[in-house]
Structure formats: structure tokens, C-alpha cells
Design goal:
Layout: H1 10-17, H2 20-23, H3 32-48, H4 52-62, E1 74-78, E2 95-100, H5 103-113, E3 117-121, E4 136-142, H6 151-161, E5 162-173, H7 178-186, H8 188-195, H9 200-207, H10 212-222, E6 224-231, E7 244-250
Parallel strand pairs: 1-2, 1-4, 2-3, 4-5
Antiparallel strand pairs: 5-7, 6-7
């Protein structure tokens, strides 16, 4: 499917998905907007993603866990945040490993996970994980693949640590799709411009370098697709008409 980002007029596409031609996909760590974004991000996350409509949309992806038995499995999560999906778990893992660049998030996890726990802090942009090959039963990734750059090198590493028949379970925003772009224009973008001096049309290029079709294409190329569905559950769902895609893939 051709995403809206690839056919909308440039004037609209820049407002929905950022001005990628101008700013590229790699953040300038010395850029004043990026520095402000790093200071504001947690407040933005708490305000827009953990309550109201943002929380409802995120939960649509997390609910895929309700059908997965985690009992006695080694579960690793990339970018667990504040573990908002814990209430959807079925069974208790043998061990839960949280991997994040943010120590504040990692410090929240032991009590929330309520099971044997290991935290792994990595640096931004790091690809290699300090975990043994073929050691993970389930790798969780909710709303993180859109942030990974380069995507392929990170997926190589996830494939390495997964056991044979291990599963990747998660969800992504349909970045690049019409519904997602319009929704962000009317919500997150407005909040940023109303509450900060940040140029969000720049920051979103760096925050979400990967469109949904690229992410799903890479997953389909590397793993066996077991389950893929969309939210909202429309009669004719697509990456342009829906907001979130949730999935289960298996390593052969």
C-alpha cells in the first residue's frame, strides 16, 4: 500500500509527517529544538499518552498481550517506558528484562513488573545488546520500532537474542498513514505548539524516522507472521485508514 506521506501535497505532508526533505531523519543533538524536546519529552508523554484519547489508542496495541501466556518465559522489552501494559499480562514471566535509554523509566520497573527483573540501560543509538544469543522467549516492543535508526541493524540484534520459535510481540503507530498524520496534526502537534517553543515539524522527523510500511516490511522479511491486526477494527482496514498495527511474529 502507498502511504499518504508519499502522495499528499508537500504542504500537507510536512504538517502531518514533518519536513523530512529539509531536516532529514537523524537528530542534531546540538539543535536548540532537540535540546528543548529532550527536556520536555517526559511531560509531553505523561500529558498526551497516559490519559484520555492517547491512552485509549495506546491500549489498543497493548491488548494483544491478553492472548499470550507469559508463564515461566524470559521476556525482554525494548523501550518499556512506565510499563503501561502490565495489567494486560497473562501469567508471570520467569524473568522480565527491561531495555531502555532512560534510567528514570528503568527505576520504575521492578515494582511494576512484580516478577524476577533485570534492567539494561543502553545509550541512544546503540545497537548491540549485552544479552546472550538465543536467550529470549518473547521480545516486546510497543511504539518503539518507529524510533529506531537504523532499523535493520537493531532488528538484526533482536533476531540474534531471540530463541528459535521465539516471538516478537508489539504494536506500532501507522506512521506515514493518513489517519495517523491527521490525528497527530489535531492533537500532539497542537499541544507542542501551544505549550512549548519547539518546532515539532522538525522534531517528528527525528523522533519517527521509520514509516509503518518499512517496519512491517522488515518484520515480514525476517520473521514468520503469526498475527497482524489494526485499530480501529474497520471493515477494510489499511495503514492509511487505521491508527495502530499490532502484531506477533515468530523466529524460524
Amino acid at each position: 500500500m502507498r502511504l499518504a506521506a508519499n502522495f499528499l501535497p508537500e504542504k500537507i505532508s510536512k504538517k502531518f509527517f514533518g519536513d523530512r526533505k529539509k531536516y532529514g531523519l537523524i537528530p542534531d543533538k546540538n539543535d536548540s529544538d532537540w535540546i528543548l524536546w529532550e527536556k520536555e519529552y517526559l511531560n509531553f508523554y505523561d500529558t498526551t499518552q497516559k490519559k484520555g484519547l492517547g491512552s485509549y489508542i495506546n491500549d489498543s496495541g497493548y491488548k494483544i498481550l491478553k492472548g499470550v501466556d507469559l508463564t515461566e518465559l524470559v521476556v525482554c522489552e525494548i523501550g518499556p517506558g512506565s510499563l503501561p501494559h502490565r495489567r494486560f499480562w497473562s501469567g508471570t514471566p520467569k524473568k522480565y528484562i527491561g531495555v531502555d535509554i532512560n534510567q528514570d523509566f528503568l527505576d520504575l520497573l521492578p515494582q511494576k513488573a512484580n516478577c524476577p527483573f533485570e534492567q539494561v540501560k543502553i545509550e541512544s543509538g546503540a545497537k548491540a545488546l549485552p544479552l546472550p544469543s538465543k536467550s529470549i522467549d518473547i521480545l516486546l516492543s510497543f511504539y518503539s520500532f518507529e524510533h529506531l535508526n537504523p532499523l535493520g541493524a537493531n532488528l538484526d540484534e533482536y533476531e540474534r537474542i531471540l530463541k528459535t520459535n521465539g516471538r516478537i510481540i508489539g504494536a506500532i503507530p501507522n506512521e506515514g498513514g493518513f489517519a495517523w498524520g491527521l490525528g497527530r496534526y489535531l492533537t500532539s502537534r497542537r499541544w507542542i505548539h501551544a505549550n512549548t517553543q519547539i518546532n515539532y515539524d522538525k522534531i517528528i522527523c527525528w523522533e519517527h524516522p521509520n514509516f509503518a510500511d518499512k517496519i512491517l516490511g522488515e518484520l515480514n522479511r525476517r520473521f514468520s507472521q503469526k498475527q497482524v491486526s489494526h485499530f480501529p477494527p474497520l471493515s477494510f482496514p489499511s495503514l492509511n485508514s487505521s491508527l495502530v498495527t499490532k502484531f506477533i511474529y515468530e523466529k524460524s
